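We were asked to recover a plausible sequence for a given structure. The inputs and outputs are reproduced exactly as logged, with field labels preserved.

PROBLEM: sequence recovery
POSITIONS: 105
GIVEN STRUCTURE:
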């Protein structure tokens, strides 16, 4: 048996094992992907809040569209106050904390 044939056999076996592992843990893999997506949403929303703190004319339109806020009533109409931004930031932090707890459980 040549070395190339042996390598091909090893690669096929590795692919088969990977497929079995992926099938066995598909629920975990799917859940992990959802959690990573949610984390990215929350971090993007946090960036919008950070930019709003630094802006003279904060715009939260993208925040409302992002879907990261589960309590849409906390997004104020018009210019947000510092208290509004703080409440949104706390909401996002609570979502991030809850997400971390879910993964650990």
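RECOVERED SEQUENCE:
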């Amino acid at each position: 048996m040549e070395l190339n044939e042996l390598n091909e056999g090893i690669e096929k076996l590795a692919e088969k094992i990977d497929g079995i592992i992926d099938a066995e843990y598909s629920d975990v893999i799917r859940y992990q992907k959802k959690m990573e997506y949610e984390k990215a949403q929350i971090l993007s929303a946090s960036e919008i809040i950070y930019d709003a703190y630094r802006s003279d004319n904060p715009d939260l339109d993208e925040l409302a569209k992002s879907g990261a806020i589960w309590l849409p009533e906390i997004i104020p109409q018009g210019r947000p106050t510092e208290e509004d931004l703080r409440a949104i930031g706390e909401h996002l932090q609570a979502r991030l904390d809850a997400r971390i707890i879910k993964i650990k459980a």
